Structures are given as C-alpha cells and as structure tokens.
Amino acid sequence: QKEVEQNSGPLSVPEGAIASLNCTYSDRGSQSFFWYRQYSGKSPELIMSIYSNGDKEDGRFTAQLNKASQYVSLLIRDSQPSDSATYLCAVNRGKLIFGQGTELSVKP
Amino acid sequence: DTEVTQTPKHLVMGMTNKKSLKCEQHMGHRAMYWYKQKAKKPPELMFVYSYEKLSINESVPSRFSPECPNSSLLNLHLHALQPEDSALYLCASSSGEGSGEGYTFGSGTRLTVV
After folding, report:
1. CA–CA distance, B59 with A80 (Å, rounded to integer)
2. Residue A54: which residues within 8 A CB-CB, separation 6 or more?
3. Which chain A residues are closer than 8 Å to B54 by Cβ?
4. A42, A49, A99: residue with CB nearest B42
5. Dihedral angle over CA of B21, B28, A96, A34, nearest 10
6. Any B CB within 8 A of A2 CB
7. Cys-Cys link to A73, which of A9, A64, A96, A107 (CB 3.0-4.6 A)?
8. A65 touches chain B (CB under 8 A)
C-alpha cells in the first residue's frame, strides 16, 4: 500500500463545474496535509493546508479532512480553464510525502 | 521575501562533467530539501538539511553530493551522471524539519544528461 494515494485521473470537468479531487493516506498518525498545484513544466505551488478534521475554505478551494477515514479531498468550485493542472496531495510525516497526482482538465 | 531561488533554470551536461545546482532562500527557514521529479511522477525526496546539517539522505547515489554552506544556501554537486538522471530538480524550504508545515518550492532546474 502506498503511503499517499490519489485518483489516477485524468479528471475532466466543464468550466463552471465543481472539481473533486481525492486522496487517502496510510499512516494514521499523520497530522499535516497539503494540496499542491503543478502546471506543466513548473514547480509545485502550495494552495491549501489542513490540520484538523472538517472543512477549510479559501476562495474557490475547499479542503476536507477526515482522519478517521484517512481521507483528504480538495473541491474546486466554479472551475476555470486556468485550473487545469496536476494536483498533488501531500502528507507531512517528518518529511513531505506526495501522492501520484491527479491531472485536472477544465474544458471551456 | 517568500521565494526560493534556484539556478540555473536549465542545464545540459555530459556524463563526464561536473556541475552544481544552487538554491537560495531568505525566509529565515532552517530546513532545506532537494527533490527529484521525473515526468508524470511526483517529487521524490533526495536530501534534507536541518540547521545546516544533513538530516536525511534517501539512499541517493554518491554521484549526487549535497552541500549547505549556510542557512540560506543549498547546493547539489553533480558528477558522472547518467542519462536516467535527467529530471527536474527541486529545492524547497520550511521553517523547521519537524514543523509539520508545507514546503515552499523553487522553480526548479531542468537537467538533461547527454
């Protein structure tokens, strides 16, 4: 079992829709969870951090954490073509461990 | 200043060359990291420096040699690389190794070994 697992994608949504990205992790003791966005050929950019159970909202982005189910998700509301990128889920267990990433494509 | 600066942005080197990648941050962070990323794959941790001392070496081949001259600088010395070492090399930093926070990444160095 991989430490951090994501839907393999690619995920395609129409412009204006909600994009839902999911991630599970294996270490129940993990405390810190992150979503990075990576455009093709660029470096990862931190877009959301979440540390406690529940929802955290920042603009069009909502991160959700359920430690009992070892599940983290990212919702992107009103998706835009500029949101098209690979989204990496990461868990900090003393070092940052990444999932495989989900490629999101938002179609105009 | 919330940036991590990496130079050069692109590097092409032969298998017998010696080159260095450089990384600089002025955020007062005390932990710095090197990651390697191949196409369509996630970043993979190579080295961790905490308070200028090597903390983690993820079994990286000796042809990669990290160096942390001071709290703001991190180098990666390259020697006798193989074509399969071609990748995007990312530097990152955080306030501390055990801080539990996310890392800030530089823009990366795209390395091609010929």
Report:
1. 41
2. A64, A65
3. none
4. A99
5. -120
6. no
7. A64
8. no
* Contact assignment for B100 to A32 by CB distance below 8 Å: yes
What tokens were used for A23? 């991630």
pLDDT tens readout for residues A57-94: 999 999 999 999 999 999 999 999 999 999 999 999 88
| Structural contact between residues B111 and B13, judged by C-beta atoms closer than 8 angstroms | yes
Burial class (CB in 10 A: 0-12, 13-18, 19+), A16: exposed
Across the interface, whether the CB atoms of B90 and A90 are under 8 A apart is answered no
d(C-alpha A7, C-alpha A4), whole Å: 11
Give the containing element (helix H, strand E) for B44: strand B44-50
- Per-residue pLDDT reduced to its tens digit, B31-85: 999 999 999 999 999 999 999 999 999 999 999 999 999 999 999 999 999 999 9
Contact B102 A46 (CB under 8 A): yes
